[in-house]
Amino acid sequence: MNTTASYSQRPLVDSFGRHVTYLRVSVTDRCDFRCTYCMSEDMVFLPKSEVLSFEEIREVIGAFVRRGVRKVRLTGGEPLVRRDIIKLIEAISADHLATGQIDELTLTTNGSQLAKHAVRLVELGMKRINVSLDTLDADKFAAITRRGRLDQVLDGIRAAREAGLAVKLNMVAIKGVNENEIVPMMEWAHSNGMELTLIEEMPLGEVSADRSDTHLSLRTVRDRLAERYTLTPIAKRTGGPARYMQIAETSGTIGFITPLSHNFCESCNRVRLTCTGQLYMCLGQDDKVDLRAAMRDSGPAGLDAALDRAMILKPKGHDFVIERRSAPAVERHMSVTGG
Question: Which residues does the annotation say bind GTP (predicted)?
């Protein structure tokens, strides 16, 4: 690994004056589920030779941290299915979390492997995680994930909470599939001390269904909730795009991520690194910068130059649209960029 002395320490500021302080790192494109809105049924995964090594991931994270990134989130695919992933988390924790260089190291997971790893994650300094969970109905869970094993996920969530991790559930709202479960999910989450964030389905990659049939506007969901509950906007921020409300009747919070019904790009502070070293400045755009090539060809100076180029290319926003028979906004699946 290159020494840190050659790295720049200039803040990462894009052309619109937004400071990038949040890095999402996909450590693998593989997953043990095949969620219908995230992957095609017959996904072809990358050969391991194309995936960044742990050392390369540490190198890139180090460059970002020295340029002002304060939060790192590990994603996938499913990050906890990558072999020896705990060794990478140990290294990132020692490099940056224990030294105070970053404020938070966290991950987004489907929960299937949490029972095995929750205690160690807490020991390494993780305080909260996001768990993707779209339904509490076992049959519906099997249909959405094309795999099932809801009990394994619920056991993982339980283990995470018992270990001391704060858990936020991410639920993709799907018309005609789980829209009637939003209230039960919220009440279950709040009764168990967890937050819930609702997410609009995003037009990323070809999937089996026509997304115009399944898109559910969260404006509609929020209006429905307001008929039954007292919703109060709060200033809570976690570094991501969610906007939060307090539910008086449950004493819990609910978040809304609305890339279609309300563009949240004006305060975007994040970029996404794929497991092959491609840096995407926007989830809804195809522009990318090859950090792996820059790092391998030109070392620290090349990596810094690539980060500067990325800031110039970071767009003002995305333009997600879901219409019948329309092509996805981008060809890559959600699992490629990282959830």
Answer: 24, 73, 108, 168, 270-272
On whether 229 is known to bind a ligand per the annotation, the reply is no
H or E, element range at 73? strand 71-75
The annotation status of 37 as a binding-site residue, yes or no, is yes
Does the annotation place 335 within a ligand binding site? no
Phi, psi of 230 (to 5 degrees): -95, 110
What is the distance, to the nearest Å, from the Cα of residue 226 to the centroid of all Cα atoms in its chain?
27
Q: Judge if pTM exceeds 0.70.
A: yes
Cα angle, residue 177 at apex, residues 320 and 242 outer, rounded to 5°: 45
Pair 107, 73: CB distance under 8 Å: yes
Tell me the two tokens of residue 280.
């995407």
Ligand-binding annotation for 168, yes or no, is: yes
**Chain centre to alpha carbon of residue 227:** 30
Q: Is 77 marked as binding a ligand?
A: yes
Residue 43 among known ligand-binding residues: no
DSSP H or E stretch at residue 182: helix 182-191
Query: Is 3 part of any known ligand binding site?
Result: no
Q: Residue 45 pLDDT > 90, yes or no? A: no
- How many helices (H) and strands (E) would you count in the chain? 10, 12
Asked whether residue 332 is marked as a ligand-binding residue, the answer is: no
pLDDT digits (tens, 9 = 90+) for 266-314: 778 999 999 999 999 988 778 899 999 999 999 999 999 999 999 999 9
179-199 pLDDT, tens digit each: 999 999 999 999 999 999 999
108 in a labelled binding site: yes
Q: Give, in order, the Cα–Cα distances in Å from 38 to each of 178, 198, 259, 338.
A: 16, 15, 15, 10
What does the domain layout of the chain look like in residue ranges? 4-337
261 assigned binding-site residue = no
Please provide the CATH number assigned to the domain covering 4-337: 3.20.20.70
Tell me: is residue 275 an annotated ligand-binding position. no
